[in-house]
Amino acid sequence: MSRAKTLIETMMDIWEMARVGDIGPYSIWIYHEPLKNPSFHLRYKNDFEIVLQMKNLTILEIKFNNTHNSFEKGKLPPKNILKLIKEFLKLSNAKNNDVTNYQAMNIIWNSLNY
Fold this sequence. Notes:
Blueprint: H1 2-15, E1 17-23, E2 26-31, E3 39-44, E4 48-53, E5 59-65, H2 79-90, H3 101-113
Antiparallel strand pairs: 1-2, 2-3, 3-4, 4-5
């Protein structure tokens, strides 16, 4: 029974998240968020995952951090990462050139959370 439950939970996770794109070695994901706070996940391989608020890019949650990066809840990410995020948000979305990545993230977030 636990094997089936694990498989079902894994499938639910897949259906409730979307990959927006990559910023160099980082990837951006949008998840279903029960608290309805517009946010996105920034991942770096298996080294860290942080959740950032869309409206101001502050860190809402640190899922895990196995790096030298200093992440602090309620603060902005380190300047080098923040710069990459800001550049990425302004770019045209790879799947829909009519919108920026920021606009695409809002569309995806709304579709997963409403």
